[in-house]
Design goal:
There is one protein chain. By secondary structure, the protein is of the alpha+beta class. The strands form two sheets. Strands 3, 4, 5, 7 and 8 form a five-stranded antiparallel β-sheet that branches. A three-stranded antiparallel β-sheet has the order 1-2-6, with no helix packed on it. Strand 3 and strand 4 form a beta hairpin.
Length: about 130
């Protein structure tokens, strides 16, 4: 009886070890076979868009030049945050930048400018005073 128990225990341990080694291999193979067998169509790359803006801060004045090299029109807006608590922060009116065009946006504070940035439909470009 003692030999039977020992043999049963050995077989159970060996089965557990083999299963422990085969499960990760099986999952790995199933993942690759499933991915290769049912390949999903690649997502279309988004069309590039959006003007490139360069913002500069000098003293109390902010100037941003935005150039749009893409065929779609972009809408940009300059935002200015003044350093003094009593100085009013400002947002320019939104300006459309047609394809192949450059627009100039400017603003000012009474004293120092803390930061200025240009917003687009989907992205934000921020420039700190240097």
């Amino acid at each position: 009886m003692r030999g039977t128990r020992h043999r049963t225990r050995s077989l159970l341990v060996a089965s557990a070890v083999v299963a422990g080694l085969l499960v990760p291999v099986g999952l790995y193979a199933a993942g690759h076979v499933g991915a290769a067998g049912s390949a999903a169509p690649a997502a279309a790359a988004p069309e590039p868009s959006g003007a490139e803006c360069r913002t500069s801060v000098k003293g109390s004045r902010v100037v941003a030049y935005c150039h749009n090299p893409y065929p779609s029109t972009d809408r940009v807006q300059l935002h200015t945050e003044c350093a003094r608590w009593w100085d009013v922060d400002a947002d320019s009116r939104p300006v459309e930048v047609p394809a192949g065009r450059t627009v100039r946006l400017d603003d000012r504070c009474w004293k120092e400018v803390r930061s200025a940035w240009v917003t687009h439909a989907t992205e934000t470009y921020r420039a700190e005073e240097s």
